[in-house]
Write a structure and sequence with these properties.
By secondary structure, the chain is α+β, with helices and mostly antiparallel strands. It is built from 15 helices and 17 strands. It has 3 domains: 32 residues, no CATH class; 198 residues, Alpha-Beta Complex (v583 fold); 214 residues, Alpha-Beta Complex (Enterococcus faecalis V583 fold), CATH 3.90.1710. The strands form 6 sheets. The protein has a 4-stranded antiparallel sheet with strand order 7-6-3-8. A 4-stranded antiparallel sheet has the order 11-10-9-13. Helix 1 links the parallel strand 1 and strand 2. The longest helix has 25 residues. It is globular, with a radius of gyration of 23 Å. It starts with 11 loop residues before the first strand and ends with a helix.
């Protein structure tokens, strides 16, 4: 087109700058497209060069890590008491979600869950005694992830709690998780009232032995298959687990009926599962954990094996850096709050449940479950956009977990910390929201983009590790 004809045609604009430029042009009727582009995260050029020089080795390691993840076959193989099966569990050890944190630095929900756990264990008779004991140094605290376990929200696992046993049959490793209590005023959200403890005791004394016998009768439950089906039915198996719970119910119900001590117990157990749409969350999480742990320790790999939050910090681990934690401040989610609560009441993001996003589910599969974005006033189009963006920061696509709306494309899998930094795009996560004070419980649910700081620190950590080889 010649210059003299330029102004005889309608003006069309491609904007690569601030979004406000696009909005101004739209106000006057100009056809404009906004380019989604961000400058890379600022890192030491020397470290970036180190990763670039090792790119071929990193790419090869990531290919191996993704292959290990995709070949994982998590199965529910049994239930037992935490002290009996969780590696290095002790009578005075309480596990919690996220990276390591000392009692004095714990957020309200984690403190509330630990104090409730002390009452549940019979180590304290009231909250005052529990708080004093927790601060005394007599109780040890450690991340669930450091003991092959995961826990939603506060994620507290005490020695007497029943846990699901998940085996990654392809690679022979195990993961563990408690059973889901339901929503609202529950221990994992930091509540510790008498009704909370009563429910936990019922779960230990009735739900646990009944499910243990039923699972033993089944032999094992293929969780990967159930998750794949749930994605086709509108779940993303993090904040929406209705289909997953229903599929598990159909699998286990006949065996509960056949093995339960009484008809009344069978009915109570099945009613509890049926009335708790989030029951499957505590199966999808250890399924993801067992799947990802198989890739742990692959030298040079920049693929994330853990994203976890303790309500104070957001932590990341990489396949190529083993058990090292890289952390940053945990953000407060954007959420739909229960009546009477606002963002001012919310605790910063908390829980090990982002292990689902780490394996390519949750927010990474939200295009399969667009109802989730309604938590923050979003649309189905937004849900698709979030998933599409996650393909930009992953090393592969899942061969089993697929999204119907995207023509059954595999979910984005294997977060590559290099891409997070180079594209300045962080993982999209959906989550529950706990009150910032202990004893209150859940106040909402929502979504957030992970903070960049832990990924920047992981990028630096990997570069320094390779630099010193």
């Amino acid at each position: 087109m010649s210059v003299k004809n330029l102004f005889e045609n309608d003006l069309k604009v491609v904007n690569t700058g601030l979004a406000s430029f696009k909005e101004s042009l739209e106000e006057v009727g100009t056809d404009v497209v906004q380019v989604e582009w961000r400058p890379p995260v600022d890192v030491d050029p020397a470290l970036a060069l180190t990763l670039k020089e090792n790119a071929a080795k990193i790419d090869g390691a990531n290919k191996e890590a993704v292959a290990m993840i995709l070949s994982g076959t998590p199965h529910l193989v049994g239930l037992d008491i935490a002290l009996n099966v969780i590696p290095k569990m002790k009578k005075n050890l309480f596990l919690h979600a996220g990276p390591p944190v000392k009692w004095e630095n714990m957020c309200g929900p984690t403190r509330g869950a630990i104090m409730g756990g002390l009452i549940y264990e019979g180590l304290a008779t009231n909250i005052e005694e529990a708080e004093k004991l927790a601060a005394s140094g007599e109780i040890a605290f450690a991340p669930c992830h450091e003991h092959n376990s995961v826990g939603p929200m506060a994620g507290v696992i005490t020695p007497s709690m029943p846990v699901f046993i998940i085996e990654n049959k392809a690679h022979g490793n195990f993961a563990y998780c408690t059973m889901n209590e339901g929503l609202g005023k529950v221990l994992r959200y930091g509540a510790y009232g008498e009704d909370v403890i009563k429910k936990l005791k019922w779960m230990e004394q009735v739900l646990y032995p009944t499910l243990k016998n039923a699972v033993a009768a089944v032999g094992s439950v293929d969780l990967k298959n159930l998750i794949a089906q749930a994605l086709h039915m509108g779940d993303e198996v993090h904040n929406r687990n209705r289909a997953g719970t229903s599929l598990f119910y159909r699998t286990i119900a006949p065996h509960v009926i056949r093995t339960a001590e009484t008809r009344e117990i069978a009915a109570d157990v099945l009613e509890f599962i049926n009335g708790n749409d989030h029951f499957f969350l505590n199966l999808s999480m250890p399924a993801a954990k067992a799947t990802l742990d198989a890739a742990r320790g692959i030298e040079y790999s920049s693929v994330c094996t853990v994203m976890a939050r303790n309500g104070t910090e957001f932590g990341v681990q990489l396949a190529g850096t083993g058990d090292t934690w890289f952390t940053g401040e945990a953000p407060v989610p954007d959420a739909l709050y229960f009546p009477g609560y606002t963002k001012a009441d919310a605790n910063p993001d908390i829980g090990d449940s982002a292990i689902t996003e780490t394996v390519g589910l949750g927010g990474f599969a939200i295009a399969a479950s667009p109802a989730i974005v309604q938590f923050v006033g979003g649309t189905a189009k937004d849900a698709v956009g979030y998933t599409l963006q996650m393909y930009e920061i992953t090393a592969g696509e899942n061969n089993i977990y697929q999204i119907p709306y995207l023509n059954f494309r595999g979910t984005p899998t294997g977060i590559d910390v290099r891409k997070v930094i180079e594209k300045n795009v962080t993982p999209f996560i959906d989550t529950g929201v706990a009150h910032k004070n202990p004893g209150v419980g859940q106040v909402g649910a929502g979504v957030l983009s992970a903070p960049v700081e832990p990924f920047r620190n992981a990028y630096i950590g990997l570069a320094n590790r390779l630099k010193n080889k």
